[in-house]
Amino acid sequence: MHNAQIVYKFKEGKLEEGVKIWEEAVYNTICKAEGFIRVQLYTGIDEMMAIGTWKEKVYAENFMKTGVFKDIMESFGELLVERPVNKVYELRYFESTEVEKR
Prior knowledge:
Layout (H helix, E strand, L loop, with lengths): L1 E8 L5 H16 L5 E9 L2 E8 L2 H8 L3 H9 L8 E6 L12
Antiparallel strand pairs: 1-3, 1-4, 2-3
Helix pairs in contact: 1-3
């Protein structure tokens, strides 16, 4: 499994606008992508972290080639205080007793 994480830092009070943009640009399309397993969006004070989980790295790369990141960056415009930080992690352990879907 392959996990890709992106942290977005927003100007004060712009988080909810950013979440709506992300939902329309990413959430509504990622579920249809080949190799997709799950996506999670966490929010904090004026920042959000998106974690996408894929069967293999190549599927995440193919999804990014669709232009989704470029499009979302254009949509965010001046909402961000800095360019998002992208990190990649390989899943080592996972345990769950319950899966909650929103």
